[in-house]
Input
Amino acid sequence: MSNVVIVGLQWGDEGKGKVVDLLCPAFDAVVRYQGGHNAGHTVKFGDRHFALRLIPSGILHPGQECVMGNGMVIAPNALFEELDELHAAGVETAGRLHVSNRAQAILPMHKALDLAREGAAGKEKVGTTGRGIGPAYEMKIARFGVRLAELGSPRLEDRLRTQLVRMEPELAALGAEPLGEPARIADQCRAWAERLAPYLTDTEHLLHGWLEAGRSILFEGAQGSLLDVDHGTYPYVTSSNPTAGGASTGSGVPPTAIDGVLGIVKAYTTRVGGGPFPGELLGSEGEFLRKRGNEFGTVTGRPRRCGWFDAVAVRYAVRLNGAELLALTKLDVLDGFDEIPVCVGYRCGGELLTEFPSCLETLEEAEPVYETLPGWKRETAGCLELEQLPDAARAYIERLERLVGAQVAVVSTGPRRSETILPPNPTLDRWTSGRLAEVLAQRDA
Ligand code: GDP
Ligand code: IMO
Ligand code: MG
Output
């Protein structure tokens, strides 16, 4: 058995949903460990299309166990909406979706505060998804949060009052509408608690049991390493730890039980929301990538900012996560270019930087230094072997591997399962417990 973390190595939307779905046949369970419905994970196969926000992508595989871990922030109404959509699409969830009773609840005032702050922030705004993610994590860390298990508790009204006392003055100062009485919010929470009850459990115990039984677990990261609250482009980040260490704290599975980290990277760079983006392409090349890559947010529909592949940022993320293997996605989006620049350093105040800087001002000033690689000007979608790729595409992949210090074990050339190259790789073989044949069979189905 093997337990593997899938983590985004850029600013999110790297294609984590696609890769998790693809590898599912080699694992017994899929676990989300952080974030909430700020995530948008797209899964496509045949003529089916799903956009999952909260529920692990493993849910689309009949019989697969799915866990929403203690590190998540969960808006019950958003969860019910997603469950309704899945049930309407014929996906069964009963008995195999397990939600941590320690996960924090996103409450209506968290969303109100997120929106009011962003509305008042002007140019400096983070560009959040407006889902209440930040305020919910704030309350957790301040020890005033409400765990899902407490939504039906007799102490709930007191807990809500404690939060409201802190948030109402800020909301009023920002000109937001008053939120109403804690008793009214408590009634709503009690109704949620009733519908949540069948899903809630001590997911730590469940996971420990599975580990002891030799089952294999796949961890599905949300967001990306550069949005990590500790290691990302703070304060333009999300409020959790998407990096691989978060898989342990956000699930209760010890770090010693994790066998490997698969980093997901796009063949170029995107970012949605505010914050520094060295080398952001503001002209026609950025527009081209956005159109061809369909770079519009899964959750908010916002256009994603685009740039060439940034090897400085990805090398940093590879090291942060200990990502030995990579899945390189959206290679097909680069099919039409004569030449493809790759950022290999930043020039800043006359200095050449080759390590990702921690200082926001340095990042804002950073001028990318590019190395230019030849394009291939041929369609790559549909290639199932590395050997079928144009020579220049293979050279592009090999150059990225050297620049970032990790090996590409999955190449994605389209959104569907069938559009994936899985070259023979002993490490991936080990991580998939010898079940790679099942992954390939699903790809080719
Ligand atoms: P996630 O948040 O990391 O799961 O990524 P998203 O689902 O938000 O965004 C990735 C987008 O790219 C989705 O629309 C996918 O269907 C799509 N996608 C994934 N892999 C590929 C690929 O190799 N080529 C193309 N053209 N699209 C892809
Ligand atoms: P997936 O899982 C891309 C960004 C927001 C904003 C910042 C903070 O689909 O890759 P938040 O609402 O989390 O407080 O917003 O983080 N962001 C994402 N960007 N993909 C995501 O998720 C994101 N989740 C949050 O745009 O800049
Ligand atoms: Mg996404």
